[in-house]
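ok, trying the design again with the full structure, not the truncated one.
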């Protein structure tokens, strides 16, 4: 009861679920929560700037249980999973992760999960903020394939930052620290089943720890913090500053069902020439042939540092006419610049193009720049 009373000031009612780590996050200083996939996610530990520096200099532990898993199992699991995504999975191996795009019949983006292949007939989709479980079950109803689709008891944590490998070693030994980028392993932690992957939403060296028994959430959080605190670990939340620096897209902010992979520069994730069919293949073929009317770009925006992130989609103007929208904007203390992602009409996307940002009636100058804004080769995450 004490924990429930502590959480009551953040609660929206029983329709939004707590995670196995919610109480621990509250004890360790969480001051605010958002809602993602119908669950609470900690979004405030006091200072987003301090959280950013903790991430890039040391390490942070984040409750990302909101990244729900859609589990696909059965004799036709591989064929069904391929039908959901435009990325070719034919070479994906057991123990490997893949960043994939799920598209609808019009080529629109339903979600951009990370796929984990647990066995030839067993897959997880670690999803962004949309109802993939319902979509997949609806597709399965008429697919004529032998698959079982459900949401398992799986709750991931993210351990991210340059010191994450040393902390992971202290928590679980040497074996997980030897994982290659975008690979995972199953791990038994004193009888508690985990999956540990070398993935994360930070573009820093990092890992995700997928707890497969929600009753052990509090114990797992405290264990990692106990071994990690002496090594510089801090409780934290996914960093909007770092993800925008990296050009990483956020569902509902930078993309949604109205967008297709080509206008988001995700051509590499679309394999139209593969033998297998997938939902949206014909539509994406037409889009590639006809071209797109807008593209995602990076922007540097002049003026005083932004306070927090944008809560509205700011118009982008050229010669007084709207030609695009700022989707995500933030001030980067490392780059000492206001940086943003935006969708801009074709013809105004060249590097160096000057645009006007209408920030709730305040106009500022902006210029189109390359993305990512920092570490474009992802060397920190891949080779860290």
């Amino acid at each position: 009861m004490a924990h429930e009373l502590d959480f009551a000031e953040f609660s929206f009612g029983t329709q939004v679920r707590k995670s196995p780590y919610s109480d621990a996050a509250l004890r360790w200083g969480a001051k605010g929560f958002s809602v993602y996939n119908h669950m609470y996610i900690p979004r405030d530990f006091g200072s987003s700037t301090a959280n950013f520096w903790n991430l890039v200099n040391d390490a942070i532990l984040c409750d990302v249980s909101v990244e729900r898993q859609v589990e696909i199992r059965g004799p036709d699991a591989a064929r069904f999973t391929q039908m959901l995504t435009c990325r070719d999975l034919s070479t994906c191996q057991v123990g490997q992760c893949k960043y994939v795009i799920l598209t609808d019949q019009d080529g629109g983006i339903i979600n951009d999960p990370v796929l984990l292949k647990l066995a030839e007939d067993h897959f997880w989709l670690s999803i962004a903020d949309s109802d993939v479980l319902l979509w997949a079950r609806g597709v399965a109803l008429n697919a004529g394939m032998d698959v079982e689709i459900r949401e398992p008891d799986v709750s991931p944590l993210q351990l991210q930052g340059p010191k994450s490998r040393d902390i992971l070693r202290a928590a679980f030994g040497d074996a997980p620290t030897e994982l290659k980028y975008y690979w995972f392993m199953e791990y038994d932690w004193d009888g508690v089943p985990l999956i540990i992957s070398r993935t994360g939403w930070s573009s820093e060296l990092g890992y995700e720890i997928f707890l497969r028994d929600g009753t052990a959430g509090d114990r797992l959080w405290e264990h990692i913090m106990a071994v990690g605190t002496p090594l510089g670990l801090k409780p934290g939340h996914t960093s909007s500053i770092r993800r925008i620096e990296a050009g990483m897209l956020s569902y509902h902010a930078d993309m949604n069902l109205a967008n297709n992979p080509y206008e988001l520069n995700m051509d590499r994730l679309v394999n139209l020439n593969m033998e297998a069919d997938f939902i949206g293949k014909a539509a994406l073929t037409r889009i590639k042939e006809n071209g797109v009317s807008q593209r995602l770009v990076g922007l540097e925006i002049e003026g005083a540092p932004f306070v927090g992130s944008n809560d509205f989609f700011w118009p982008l103007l050229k010669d007084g006419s709207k030609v695009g929208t700022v989707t995500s904007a933030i001030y980067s203390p490392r780059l000492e610049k206001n940086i943003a992602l935006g969708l801009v009409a074709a013809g105004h996307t060249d590097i160096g193009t000057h645009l006007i940002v209408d920030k709730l009636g305040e106009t500022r100058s902006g210029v189109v720049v390359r993305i990512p804004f920092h570490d474009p080769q992802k060397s920190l995450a891949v080779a860290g």
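Keeping the full-length input from now on. The longest strand covers residues 321-332.
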